[in-house]
Amino acid sequence: MTGRAAPPGADPAGPAGRPELDALAGEFVLGSLGEDERREAEERLQSDPHFARLVADWRHRLAPLDEAVLPVAPPPDLLARIESEIDARVEASADVRIASRVAAPARSGQAATGGRLAPSPGLTDLDLMRRLRIWRAAALSALATSSALAASVAVLLWMPAAPTERPPVAAPGPVATGARYLAVVNRDGAQPAIVVSVDTQTGIVSLRDLGAEQPADRSLEVWYLAGDNSRPPLSLGVLADSAEVTHLPVRDADYGRQNAAIAITLEPKGGSPNGDPTGPVVYSGRLIPEPR
């Protein structure tokens, strides 16, 4: 998915510019822009109040998706591997710096003593070890800082713009008539493949394809899961081939039920032959209420 900007000369608030600018704001919040596009968006955020409001709207709408991201424990040997890699890189860098610092006074000493190597008066073994420890500590500090800043959500939905000012996002509550729900479906916590938006008022389930893998001779079928096995999986339909967005009917399901989820299975072309899942679950994600 690539970033988008409003057409040249278009009024960002007008019909020609707003959809593209709103999509750009959404991709900026999701972190899916390229490096140059993100830099331009950051500059625009500082100079364009309308764009800043759109970014604030997207951050509010996507905030509940944090609840759908399950924590992933790092491998037990991750810290040891990071420290080992840092040590190796720091030592290699230190060797180069030490060699260059020692070589310069050595060359001048050779010149002053007729070609004989003279000791460096200001650089002892103890000094070198102290500097090496400082460089290692600095590298570890930089790593910790960059790790603390690394956090992202990957999902993009086309949703109508909402009012800029809203109360703080509340925890999911009871199911409301005409409620909307979101689900980010992925494979084992990997990068999101499909974003599902359920609108019980319009009766439409919208699925935006972010890069789901589908064999040419098979179909991806969408299922509603009650979360407590109170009913069998309910088929919502099949994803359209080569379409960025698929619209399916809501059908009779309680999308606000606790732990309700969306699952996608790999089925024969056209969908399951018997109304039940027959293939493996390739993507899944929990449903959460969309804030109003």
Plain-language structure description:
Keywords: Cell membrane, Membrane, Transmembrane, Transmembrane helix. It comes from Pannonibacter tanglangensis. The protein is an alpha+beta fold. The chain folds into three domains: 18-68, no CATH class; 78-149, no CATH class; 180-289, Immunoglobulin-like, CATH 2.60.40. Helix content is 34%, strand content 18%. The strands form two sheets. It has a five-stranded antiparallel sheet with strand order 6-3-2-1-9, with no helix packed on it. A hairpin with a 4-residue loop joins β2 and β3. The protein starts with 17 loop residues before the first helix and ends with a strand. Residues 1-17, 109-113, 115-121 and 138-176 have low confidence and may be disordered.
**Main pleated-sheet profile:** 5 strands, antiparallel
Query: Percent of residues in beta strands?
Result: 15-25%
Which CATH architecture of the largest domain would you pick? Sandwich
> What global shape is seen?
globular
- Physical arrangement of strands within the biggest beta sheet: 6-3-2-1-9
Low-confidence stretches: 1-17, 109-113, 115-121, 138-176
CATH class of the largest domain: Mainly Beta
> Topology as H/E string?
HHHHHEEEEEEEEE
- Rg from Cα: 28 Å
Calculate the mean pLDDT score and round it.
Answer: 70
Q: How far apart lie the N and C ends?
A: 27 Å
According to CATH, what is the topology of the largest domain?
Immunoglobulin-like
Summing up helix and strand content along with how strands pair, one would put the structural category as alpha+beta
What's the total helix number?
Answer: 5
**Number of self-contained structural domains:** 3
Helical fraction: 25-40%
What's the count of strands? 9
